[in-house]
Amino acid sequence: MFRESLEELKKTRTITICGLFAAMSCLMGSFTIRIGNILKIGFSGLINELVSMFFGPVVGGVFGGMTDVLKYILRPDGAFLIGMTLNSALAGVIYGIFLYKKKISFW
To answer: Which of 49, 55, 54 has the alpha carbon at shortest distance from 67?
Structure first.
């Protein structure tokens, strides 16, 4: 599973699609709902799940970490925490493990 996902990372098509998904993730990050000063509800994590489902855990992990840094550069919100970046990368790996090459069903 990880080897196949690593092969996906070497394809130009995958890098191009991930770039488009990264732009969508940054756009979705701007539609965050704030409740008070502490709670935020965001939708950009859905894009990370899609990338992990389409391209696997390796691409999902790299995508999650890179988009977290990119979103912080474009719109800083508080201090930069490397732990949150690692959390985003780990979420991409976990989603990729469970969703990569699985049949999509709604029931």
So the answer is: 49
Q: What is the pTM of this model?
A: 0.87
CATH class of this structure's domain 2-99: mainly alpha
Domain ranges of the chain: 2-99
Q: Which residue has the tokens 């000063």?
A: 37
Say which residue the tokens 């069903």 belong to.
Answer: 105
Judge contact between 46 and 28, C-beta under 8 A: yes
Kindly report, residue by residue over 4-49, the tens digit of the pLDDT.
988 988 999 999 999 999 999 999 988 888 898 888 888 888 999 9
Q: What is the dihedral of CA 51, 57, 61, 64, to 10 degrees?
A: 20
